[in-house]
Queue: 2 jobs
Job 1
Amino acid sequence: MIEVKNFTKKYGDFTAVDDLSLSIGTGEIFGFIGPNGAGKSTTIRFLATLLRPTSGEGRICGHSVVQDPMAVRRVIGFMPDDFGVYDGMKVWEFLDFFAVAYEIPRVQRKQIIGKVLELLDLTKKRDDYVNGLSKGMKQRLCLAKTLVHDPPVLILDEPASGLDPRARLEMKALLTTLGEMDKTILVSSHILSELADFCTMIGIIERGKMLASGTINEIQRKIQSHRVLKIDIAGEDLDSAAQLLRSNPHVRSVERFDQTLTCEFSGEDSDKSRLLGALIAQGVPVSSFAEQELSLEEVFMMITNGVVS
Ligand SMILES: Nc1ncnc2c1ncn2[C@@H]1O[C@H](COP(=O)(O)OP(=O)(O)O)[C@@H](O)[C@H]1O
Ligand SMILES: [Mg+2]
């Protein structure tokens, strides 16, 4: 759905984005995470057809962002990081303005605007002036305007930045709803936890380079040599179980705490199931055998600390 190949953008001698590639499938919610200045907005503006690449290419729904920007604009809703909302315009007029720009016929506009206002919980603000809205509502209104032409792809540059905690939560809930509506979403943030709950994929960018991207599982698999297994044993004899674990070539270390053995494991899934089989075959009373899931935070720390490349 969204495809970037070897995108590089230089400003003079300075390379803002360096050979970045990514691939986002239909219906995915891709969290584009990186500190300020990493190159998120540069990449996003390229995809939104607002910035020419130094080299590389991008495609959205099969359309080239360089060769066919008009086709791309029809299939994306773009929310920039620094939108201007026009003074002296009412909420419905603001949305109508964009609906006209997208050439939506007059007879459909009223109904579409009503729907979008409803979705973003702005119905009561329909006749309010835009410049009188709170920051959170302005941000919602900007999201509303990306939806008037019902695009399959949304590209949102830090939609939650500058919002208070409540408005951030509301924005999160909205993005989750949009995900459930089968939109393909690329959303950026410099705050990891903001995206962790609802993204199906992440990409981590730092100083213009994509450090890792893929589904959370794919990235976890990459750091497979750091898998941790937690094995609970019923009964007294944990030592023989620990000994059996240590003799396995994929087990690096074993620690005991209460009834739990924690081991560092470097094998594949098939090695993992063989390990469990061996324990059971030896009569070890395993009451629980689970891989410790790394949180997105832990994955992020490992990648940005250079543990994984
Ligand atoms: N028009 C420009 N001219 C020169 N440098 C720029 C320009 N736009 C962005 N940059 C630089 O490119 C880098 C990436 O910026 P940006 O893509 O906005 O990062 P992010 O959105 O991740 O905060 C930054 O160092 C920024 O200062
Ligand atoms: Mg930015």
Job 2
Amino acid sequence: MEDRILIVDDEEVICNILFKRLGKEGYSCITANNGKEALSHFYQGNFSLIISDINMPEMNGIELLQKVKAIDPKVKMIMVTAYPEIDLAVNAMRLGAYDFIIKPADLDLIVMSVKKALESKRLEEEIEAYHNRLEEMVGERTAKLQQAYRYLKKSHLDSVKVLVEAIDAKDPYTRGHSDRVKRMSLAIAKQMDFSEERLEILEYGALLHDIGKIGIKDEILQKQGPLNSTEYQFIREHPLIGVKIVEGVEFFKNKIPMIRHHHEYYDGGGYPDGLAGEDIPLEARIISLPDAFDAMTSVRPHRGEKPLHDVLSEMEKCKGKQFDPKIVDIFIQGKIYKV
Ligand SMILES: [Fe+2]
């Protein structure tokens, strides 16, 4: 696109000289006799550069400079004046003028300044276009990465679902247990202001907490009636079996604390490590509540349904013993058991 130049001077002669010379150089020019007239041309036309006198009636060059820069900061402006004062020059440059030339000005000097100003404008535009292109490219790549991440997440979720099916299938009386533990654990964590990222880790950890049960014999898991001490010992192995199953897979690594510690007791009386209080990872302390609640409320062949009220008061009694008291409060007061 050809560069259009706006020449502003209250001396008609100067306008004409500049008009002719710049026309010879191949520029398309328009002239104005003061700032106000120049501004109305500027609103209508697409100018790359303005050469303006400073002292003019109606609107002076400095005021014009400020107005033009406010409309389009990229436009280049060369100031020309017969009254050279250092303060004026400094002020003009500070307001964004490209050059400051003193009259009577050598025409070659003005042409050189015009060429330099337009070249500088072109470079700035190229840099801007390059930046925009880069931003666009980053945007496209980010969208692709997000898509890949969503796909990866879905594949993980699908594989976790298969594992959860396998866990739940080991014990037909607790079908849906992992999913209920997940839902209630997330509801507790939300009340504890977990970040999205932490909620996601908890979601998978809660779904997989009993994955070690895959390694426990069916006759023990499905036994009707109380377990003897040997059988109970086997059951107590499931958190560590779970860790062994998942520890080689990167995606599962941050879920291990939940798999390993969901049977620890707040007073240190749980297994497998006998951790107590806040030494038990928070996620494991959270999961242990819905896990126990769901086990207590599930119907077993040798045991009927337990009234909700009894289960809740039993949990209340286990505050500070089996469970973290703060989490029991959230569970009961927030009616988490209803989610
Ligand atoms: Fe368990």
